[in-house]
């Protein structure tokens, strides 16, 4: 099969993934209240579903990445999308919370979309073109984030379960599209062992972190994830507190920022990284992100907030550049394994940071200084930049090697 349709399919996959998630965000509380019978129980079950999903994603992602190295990217990706569609269909039809828990747990265990997509891009793009491809991926993510809640709110006004039927239909249609269109990027290597050490989250992370260069990049990406998740968790609450904005105003500003970020990643990331290289683009972008977060902590007037949003959009080059840098340092037959380990590490941030950031914000709010949460986020982004700046370039060396000769 031809490889030409691969990148468009991957972009559509990520867009639909995020669109499907966004569809249900504004209506999930109403559905959970309908299923459980009261709002208090709905909150508890929603938290349990989210935690179960994140835990199983952390546990299983390394295995899915390893399976994609051994058997190919295509079957793992299509299986992940099928599980996601089944999960949304369960949300649309379930009459009790236990059904939702079982299917959401299955979706978490099969949540290999981003693991496989990142590995797939490394398979089908030349190293000098990967930052552009990862930038386009970020743009697709952002567009789905903008479109999903809007469409979900409109559909939810018709029927509380309609957005879940729509999300399921999008996921399963994407499976059918991929079945007929998506080529295999690499046929797999049956000699790739499925050892317990490399297929469990602790062992796979240890194998990545032991690498002197790849390990530093993994730590840098984790710090960036912590900064990003902190901002996402408390940003709307902070704007409501600082400027007394209503939810509509906050939503419009968030949508504008997401659209700006999507446009920048789609059209500017590739040329910027080609001009400056992965390392300099990643370091500069991380510093821009840190500056944006630090400024947000003390912003006093709305116009300055908009300036800081633009700086943050420029800083989004760091994610694509770092991902490109990581992919260049991994042997072809282990792209899935490494991406799975990194997905698991990201799942830790997604599970822990929102709770910690929310608690810190609430505590600081009592003292009239909630913006200090952004100081902590800025420190994480600055630490990410420091780790990137101190990391030498690398060349592909298989996991499990002695570690010598990784650095140029």
From TrEMBL:
Q: Which InterPro entries match?
A: MFS, MFS_dom, MFS_trans_sf, Sugar_transporter_CS, Tet-R_TetA/multi-R_MdtG-like
Q: Which Pfam families match?
A: MFS_1
Occurrences of domain Major facilitator superfamily (MFS) profile (ranges): 6-396
Keywords linked to the UniProt accession: Membrane, Transmembrane, Transmembrane helix, Transport
Membrane topology for this entry? Multi-pass membrane protein
Compartments reported by the entry:
Cell membrane
Concerning its family, UniProt says: Belongs to the major facilitator superfamily. TCR/Tet family.
Please report the name of this protein according to its UniProt entry. MFS transporter
- Organism (species): Micromonospora sp. CCTCC AA 2012012
């Amino acid at each position: 099969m031809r490889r030409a349709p691969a990148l468009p399919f991957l972009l559509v996959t990520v867009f639909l993934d995020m669109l499907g998630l966004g569809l249900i965000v504004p209506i999930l509380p109403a559905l959970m209240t309908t299923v459980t019978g009261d709002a208090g129980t709905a909150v508890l079950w929603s938290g349990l579903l989210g935690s179960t999903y994140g835990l199983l994603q952390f546990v299983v992602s390394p295995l899915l990445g390893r399976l994609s190295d051994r058997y190919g990217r295509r079957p793992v990706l299509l299986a992940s999308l099928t599980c996601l569609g089944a999960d949304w269909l369960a949300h649309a039809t379930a009459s009790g919370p236990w059904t939702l828990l079982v299917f959401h747990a299955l979706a978490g265990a099969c949540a290999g979309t981003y693991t496989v997509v990142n590995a797939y891009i490394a398979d089908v793009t030349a190293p000098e073109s990967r930052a552009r491809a990862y930038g386009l991926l970020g743009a697709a993510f952002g567009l789905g984030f903008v479109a999903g809640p809007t469409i979900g709110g409109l559909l939810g006004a018709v029927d509380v379960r309609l957005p879940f039927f729509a999300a399921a239909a999008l996921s399963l249609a994407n499976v059918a599209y991929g079945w007929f269109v998506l080529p295999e990027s690499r046929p797999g290597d049956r000699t790739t062992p499925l050892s317990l050490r490399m297929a469990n989250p602790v062992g796979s992370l240890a194998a990545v972190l032991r690498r002197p260069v790849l390990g530093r990049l993994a730590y840098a990406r984790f710090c960036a994830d912590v900064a990003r998740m902190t901002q996402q968790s408390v940003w709307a609450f902070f704007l409501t507190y600082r400027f007394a904005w209503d939810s509509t105003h906050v939503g419009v500003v968030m949508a504008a920022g997401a659209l700006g970020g999507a446009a920048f990643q789609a059209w500017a990331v590739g040329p910027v990284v080609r001009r400056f290289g992965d390392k300099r683009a990643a370091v500069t972008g991380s510093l821009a992100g840190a500056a944006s977060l630090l400024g947000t902590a003390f912003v006093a007037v709305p116009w300055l907030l908009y300036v800081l949003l633009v700086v943050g959009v420029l800083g989004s080059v760091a994610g694509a550049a770092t991902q490109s840098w990581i992919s260049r340092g991994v042997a072809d037959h282990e792209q899935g394994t490494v991406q799975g380990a990194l997905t698991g590490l990201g799942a830790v941030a997604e599970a822990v940071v929102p709770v910690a950031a929310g608690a810190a914000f609430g505590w600081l709010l009592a003292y009239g200084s909630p913006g200090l949460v952004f100081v902590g986020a800025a420190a994480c982004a600055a630490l990410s930049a420091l780790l990137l700046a101190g990391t030498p370039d690398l060349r592909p060396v298989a996991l499990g090697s002695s570690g010598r000769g990784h650095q140029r």
